[in-house]
Give the backbone structure.
Amino acid sequence: MDAPRLSRLVRKGVTFLSDEARPGGVTLAFTERTGGVSTGQWASLNLGSRCGDDSEAVRANRLRVLDALGVLDLADRMVCPRQVHGDRVLVAGSKGEGALRDLRAKAEEGADAIVCTTPGIPVLLCFADCLPVVLVAQGGFAVVHSGWRGTIARISARAMEVLCQETGSDPSQVNAYVGPHIAGPDYEVSQDLLDRFVGEFGPDVVAGQRRLDLAQAVRIALQDAGADPSRILDSGVSTPRNLDRFYSYRAEQGACGRHGAVAVLSQ
């Protein structure tokens, strides 16, 4: 696979960041907040079903995203786990409706990463400051929700390890995409939490006085697990500084929708 890259695209009114090369046969996207039907504090392309928005609006928004990615016919196969800020990694590695039902049941129990090696199953996770991470190997991908708890638990590295086990890939050949999130200079935390991260990842995660760089922690975790630094790409977009494009739980004091990271393996 070629090294990762991200371009800002607009298709059917939906704006998103994507790698147009579709590495490993994977279509991936980090959506923005415009182009949907939600109103009020959720305006407009809210993909989160647990932040108070109308469920029909959320469904319509999700369909718009799948349509923009050219996989609208797979809407009934989409998996959207209940995110719990943990480190549970689930695997979509079996074909058949029974396997998909089992996966969805486990996802509803709570998970923050889905590894998928089965074609035709779109995976969506939702965000409003936490790190969206998409990992791509030949023949599979992972979508990861990495808040501070998941980051210090190295959930992205765990997901990469599972992805490599499932695909037979070497970690050095995995592409890692870090989507829009709250960047270090904007992320103030307690000194105790910052000290915990320094103890786990070293001083490079410090982005200023009581400022924590979660993306750097994810990068370190991935590299420790064997990832090639040249294959780790950060979008470089800080959510609270770009409220016209992305939701930010901190900047909007919790009254907001969720943008998404979505990926699907070609059939």
